[in-house]
Amino acid sequence: MKIDLTGKTALVTGGSGQLGRVMCLTLAQCGADVVVHFHRNAQEAERVVQAIRALGRRSMAVQADVTVKAEVDAMKTLIEAEMGPVDIMVNNAVIQYRWTRVLEQPLEDYDSQYRSCILHNVLMAQAFVPGMVERGHGRVIGINTECAMQNDPGQGAYVAGKRGMDGVLRVLAKEVGEHQITVNQVAPGWTISEDHPESEASLGYREKVPMKRRGTDQDIANLVAFLASDLAGFITGQYISVSGGNVMPTI
């Protein structure tokens, strides 16, 4: 038994970012052709594209602001013209901002998280899921966060956006399940990546984690690949934590 995505086309938003680039490469290693979305970092997106092509898979980079309907629709047109329909959609992009307490957080930060966590998922679903419905198969994977369960000081705007995203994707899972489309969420903990290496500053965090370590970007990508595959064909509407047990969704 193995994860085999041969013949599938995947789209990863924020594919040039710290977690996105590993997701893109992992999906390609499983046999998928991969579209690497980026907003500003064209150079890194092209680097990921070249790495995917070196694996023998088709790939392209596409630029868009995924919080703007016209840009998402234009992206869809470009992708389908060059790569064909999207079978696997990974909504990973998010707007970064400076965290502070609710009473001090600028209102524009709440707006940015609404747009990049909620509106992003809605616009991508409206653009790409109808085609999945027509084909009777598809995978939607949203990248959430352990913070949505922690609700720690300073996380207010991020948690607001991600919890709203959770609601939208759970509803979507019920609305499109009959068409054999699964909708799930991967919720990373504080993850080691190229941009966020292990450090002494994370010692306190590691001590709270049952497994006494931070996860890696590959840990996240592995779950994304599984959920994208036929092996996960009867799993939908789920929020799955990849945090070493730091948060534990309950029944």
From TrEMBL:
Belongs to the short-chain dehydrogenases/reductases (SDR) family. This is Beta-ketoacyl-ACP reductase. The keyword Transport does not apply. It comes from the Bacteria. Gene3D superfamilies: NAD(P)-binding Rossmann-like Domain. Keywords: Oxidoreductase. It comes from Deinococcus cellulosilyticus (strain DSM 18568 / NBRC 106333 / KACC 11606 / 5516J-15). GO terms for molecular function: oxidoreductase activity.
